[in-house]
Specification:
Layout (H helix, E strand, L loop, with lengths): L1 H10 L9 E10 L2 E10 L2 E2 L2 E5 L2 E8 L13 E7 L8 E7 L8 E3 L7 E10 L2 E15 L7 E16 L4
Antiparallel strand pairs: 1-2, 1-11, 2-3, 4-5, 5-6, 6-7, 7-8, 8-10, 9-10, 10-11
Length: 170
């Protein structure tokens, strides 16, 4: 939740189309429609990152709808989770948001009693950061704001594969 509050503040910033690099991609479907998202960085900084405290890793991904976006949540994905043991990187507390419009606050998200399923195929420290890859899937319901229960009468089935090298949060 703390990552979503930070992203909300970033989400109100204007879209910046500046020189940046793509550090990863996410591909998949939302209600059967194929999509591609991009994880970007600029000057070594990214809205997708990880933090490490002892054996605990917090991972946060913000995937943009275009490769030339650095700060936007429009049509983006947010995925976050925690790993408590690098030797057994079992993701805990996975949260996924699909921001279908202009607002971070209004998004499709999973209800607490039916969280998304996150499977990691890669979770390894590398020279440039943390290499993460895997799949996330589930059913997301429309939510009017952080903390609001999602309306599953307005839901989207999602299945997404991602692969990225994330920089450390500074």
């Amino acid at each position: 939740m703390k990552r979503f509050v930070l992203a909300a503040a970033i989400g109100v910033l204007p879209i910046l189309a500046q020189a940046q690099e793509v550090i990863g991609t996410a591909t998949g479907t939302i209600d059967g429609q194929e999509r591609t998202w991009f994880l970007t960085a600029q000057d070594g900084q990214s809205q997708s990152d990880f933090s490490e405290m002892g054996s605990i890793f917090d991972v946060s991904i913000l995937a943009h709808a275009s490769s030339d976006t650095v700060m936007s949540t429009k049509d983006g994905l947010m995925l976050s989770w925690t790993v408590f043991d690098m030797a057994n990187p079992e993701p805990q507390g996975a949260e996924l948001r699909y921001m279908a419009g202009d607002s971070f606050m209004q998004a499709y998200t999973a209800p607490e009693d039916a969280p998304v399923m996150l499977d990691l195929s890669t979770f390894a420290k590398v020279t440039d950061g943390l290499h993460v890859a895997g799949t996330v899937s589930g059913t997301l319901g429309w939510s009017e704001g952080a903390g609001a229960d999602p309306d599953m009468a307005d839901s989207r089935d999602v299945s997404i594969t991602f692969d990225a090298v994330l920089p450390a949060l500074e």
